[in-house]
Amino acid sequence: MASLQLQAVAAVLALVAAGAGAAHGFEFHEATVEAIQLGFSNGTLTSTALVRFYLDQIGRLNPLLRAVIEVNPDALRQAQHADAERRRGSGTATGSLRGVPVLLKDNIATRDALNTTAGSLALLGSVVKRDAGVAARLRRAGALVLGKASLSEWANFRPVEAGWSARGGQARNPYVLSSTPCGSSAGSGVAAAANMAAVTLGTETDGSILCPSSFNSVVGIKPTLGLTSRAGVVPITPLQDTVGPMCRTVSDAVHVLDAIVGYDTQDAAATGAASKYIPHGGYTQFLKKNGLKGKRIGVPNGFFQGYDQTQLNTYKQHLATMRKLGAVVIEKLDVAANLTALLVEIYSEGIAMQAEFKLSINAYLADLVYSPVHSLADIIAFNNNHPVEERLKDFGQPDLIAAQSTNGIGPVERAAIRRLKELNTNGLEKLMMEHQLDAIVAPNSDISSLLAISGHPGIVVPAGYDEKGFPFGICFGGLQGYEPRLIEMAYSFEQATKVRRPPMFKP
Ligand SMILES: *[C@@H]1O[C@H](CO)[C@@H](O)[C@H](O)[C@H]1NC(C)=O
Ligand SMILES: *[C@@H]1O[C@H](CO)[C@@H](O)[C@H](O)[C@H]1NC(C)=O
Ligand SMILES: *[C@@H]1O[C@H](CO)[C@@H](O)[C@H](O)[C@H]1NC(C)=O
C-alpha cells in the first residue's frame, strides 16, 4: 500500500482505537482476563458483549492488519450460551478463561466450522478428527474459540516475508504499518496487540512466538517442550514444536498457560515427560511483584550487538531495574567459547528438521478425516499447480523440496541430533549450572535457537519502542521446567517497567 494511503488509514485507526469502548461501563480496550472475570461477576459485562467487541475490532482492523484468517461463525451463539450458563449458575467450567474469547493460530486444529490450514491453500477443506489437545483444554476451561489467526505459511519452510501466507496475505505490524510483524505466529501477535481478541495462542519451533511477541509489544510464553500438547497442531518437528500464549500482559499469558498445560494421550511421550514440571496449584501463584528478588540472571556475550544506542541504553536501564529489584545480574558471560561458531552449528538443526518435518507432516495428513492433499509430495505438487496464489516466483519452495528428499532419521540426522545435544550440554546448560543462573536475558528472540534445540522455555516481555515507535522486547530464557521462576521474573519486570502501550498505527 502506498505510504500516503497508509497515513490516512493510520489516522482514522488511531481515532477509532482511542474512542471505541469508552461509552460502556466496561473498558474493553486492553481488558485483562482478571478484569473480564470481574466484569462478569459484577454484572457490567457479558461474553456476548465481549465477542461483539472483538468481532467489531476484527471487522474494522483486519482489512489492514490481516491478523485473522477466519472468524468462528458460531462465536456469538457460544457466547450467548456461556452467558445463559453464568446466569443460571450451571455449566462445568471453572477458572479464569470461562467465557473468554480466544484466537488460535491457524495451525491449531479445531473440529468445528473453522478450517485448519497453517495458512496454506493446500489444506483448505481438510477435516480433522478432533480438536487439537490445547484447543480441547481451552474448551473444557470454558473459553470461546473466536477464530483462527494468520501465520507465515509453513513457518521456516518457506523463506517468506515474515507474516505472509497464501490464505492470510501479508500481516501488518499495528505499531508501524510498514514494518514486519515477524513470524510465524504473526496474526496471534498482531491480534493480541490490536485488541482483536482477549488472548491468543501461537506456536514456536524456533522463534515463532518470541519474535512476533517482541515486534508487536505483547507477552509471549514459549513453554518447555511437551508442557503443552502438540497433538492436532500442523507440525514442523516434534523435537522443537511447542504451543504457548501471546497476550497483552504476563498475567493473561499465565492464565492461558494454566489452561493449556498437561498430559495428552495423543502426544503421550512428550507431555508425559514434561508433566513433572507442572506445579501443584498452577502458575498464577508465581505472579509475584517481588519476583526478581534473589534471582541470578546471566547476560550472555554477543547478543546485545547490532542494536542502536537508544535501544542499548534502554536494555541497560532494564538491567539496572532488575538489580534494583534484588536480582544479581552477571554480564559478559560466554555461552560457548565461540558464539559465532555455535550459532552457525545450531543450523544443523535444519538437517534434523527437514527429515522430522517430512515424517510428521505425512503423519498429520494421514490422520485427517478428509484432505485434498495426503503427503508432502502432494503439497509440493499443489504449490506447483498454484504458482500465482503461492507466489512460487518470489519464494519457491526449496525447503519443502529438501524435506521431501529426506528418507527418515538416518545416520546423518542422528549425528545432527547428537551434535545439537552436545551444543546444549556444553553451551546453555553448562553456563546456567556453572553460574547457578535462574535465567539468561537477551533482546527479542535472539536466543530462540539456544532454547529451541533442547526444548527450553522462554518468556518475552515488552521492553521499549524505537524512535519510529517500533516495539522491541526482552527475553527471559531458562532450562526445561523453569517456567515458575521465569514467570516470577517476567511479572516483576513488567510491573516495575509497565512498557506496553496500545498500538498507534503509524504509517
Ligand atoms: C466491574 O468490574 C470492572 C472491572 O472489570 C470495573 O471496571 C467496574 O468499575 C466494575 N463495576 C462495578 C459496578 O463494580
Ligand atoms: C472453511 O473453508 C471453506 C472452503 O473450503 C469455506 O467455504 C468456509 O467458509 C470456511 N470456514 C470458515 C469458518 O471461514
Ligand atoms: C569463531 O568461529 C567462526 C566460524 O567457525 C570463525 O570464523 C571465527 O574465526 C571464530 N572466532 C574465534 C575468535 O575463534
From TrEMBL:
<keyword id="KW-0732">Signal</keyword>
<protein>
    <recommendedName>
        <fullName>Amidase domain-containing protein</fullName>
    </recommendedName>
</protein>
<feature type="domain" description="Amidase">
    <location>
        <begin position="50"/>
        <end position="444"/>
    </location>
</feature>
<dbReference type="Pfam" id="PF01425">
    <property type="entry name" value="Amidase"/>
</dbReference>
<feature type="signal peptide">
    <location>
        <begin position="1"/>
        <end position="25"/>
    </location>
</feature>
<dbReference type="InterPro" id="IPR023631">
    <property type="entry name" value="Amidase_dom"/>
</dbReference>
<dbReference type="InterPro" id="IPR036928">
    <property type="entry name" value="AS_sf"/>
</dbReference>
